[in-house]
């Protein structure tokens, strides 16, 4: 027991030191984990031994990696980038695999080894490239968008490779087609089942879990879902990672996507780090040293041929030469999924140990050289007498949170948050809100509001809202302890962003200023009205008249501010539901009674309910006129007292008054 503890402690200590060191010099953490494995393995210092349990735990990292990858995929995003993803991406992967297989076969490799190696080389590093693009601010460049499109297809291509490698190893040439067909049939069945579960069951489960508002339960549920999906595909003889990917993709359309990604990230990163440690432990150092010249030659060949294939593919798709070359420089390296597939191929005896070590060394060196080559892009383009563009405006970005810049981030979408957004919208000030109440988020998203579900104290959620690009961040909660935690998280994610805090009073004003808050706004409006009441009373004005004046002032001043998305009944506990007006979004299905009828025909004013806005085909119409004809898939924003809004909704959907 003491020996195991000492081995694990030494492994963690080495990982901490090397990750810190590599990050200090600008290299990815993946390389640090690989070096940790090299040191810990039998060809290094040799204090660790690879056990079955360690392999299993490391493979869970792949499961969580594919789950988080699935969360990144959304059908609208794929459709918006289909020209790049399925055009340029597929062309690059197919050409690299076919030409690589032919070249390796010519170099006396058998066709099976040639195909496996070529398919590994076709993949690039999503983690390294995306990180470097974000750090350099190059995501808006045309070359950056081309790289993202290709990486998306490469990530998709990993899934069939995960299925194919075990089948190729288990089958001979005569039964391979049948085995692949059976696997595809099983995969289709599992996909349909997981799609049904993900569409109808999982959102309800996470809705109930989110209502409890307990972080531990949300984390546990996320882990259980990922592992159950992986276990299901494993029972059908497919990869656990495939099931996790499908589960993630199904949940990628829900409002819980960002929170799920934030919850799974710590487990994913730690277990993936352990996976790369096990990969590094398999690296045969003496073989690498003896074959170092061949590895360097292979590195040069990889750079030349992959850059050439990507450049030609991009130009065939109509891209400019400088964009094509810059994209090739971004994507020439081997990727982290290459290590995953090397381990899988070695496990099924598709590659011998020497070739696996050669490929791992090739991948490590290519990833280490990538940051340097990207920095030299302008110099490389100058060799071709081309200048790297600083911004290409011909790429049309999709609407959404990802496209926001110089916007306002609002932490909390309750009454205060909604009031703020209603003043921002008429002024065309972009904004995004973060809220933990799942029902409130669903109501707001249905009405077309940019509201993310998640805990605002988590750095990943703040990054999803683009806090580093925001002009201002507003904290709407009035609790000082909670504000302290939120401010600390915000400062870690975006040290320079201006922060505006709402407080019940100014007791903690100085403390908040010291934490880096730009401005503190105490709740003073009602206090000012009470002060006016006292002034008038002490001036001899009758109390009845004072109350009438104050009531009229509230009615005149706050009519625009009345009405809030209710979220759930708990949000109404402070108010009388007989007097409070709130907003409710309702989508009109094809069977709705209100379809093909005008607002005037429906006569909702008789029920004392008002349609404050209508959303149609992504566009919002404020205060639609009575002659407006309601159509299928219209989203109406109803305003009124809760019971009246409920009756109006039933009337619009079923025609029952």
TrEMBL record:
Keywords: Antiport, Ion transport, Membrane, Potassium, Potassium transport, Transmembrane, Transmembrane helix, Transport
Annotated ranges, domain RCK N-terminal: 405-522
Predominant subcellular localization, coarse grouping: membrane
TM region(s), chain numbering: 6-22, 29-50, 56-73, 85-108, 114-133, 145-169, 175-197, 217-247, 291-312, 324-343, 355-374
Membrane in keyword set: yes
Domain RCK C-terminal: 570-654
Protein topology in the membrane: Multi-pass membrane protein
Compartments it resides in: Membrane
Domain of life (superkingdom): Bacteria
Keyword Transmembrane helix: yes
Record's protein name: Monovalent cation:H+ antiporter-2, CPA2 family
Species classification: Bacteria, Pseudomonadati, Pseudomonadota, Gammaproteobacteria, Alteromonadales
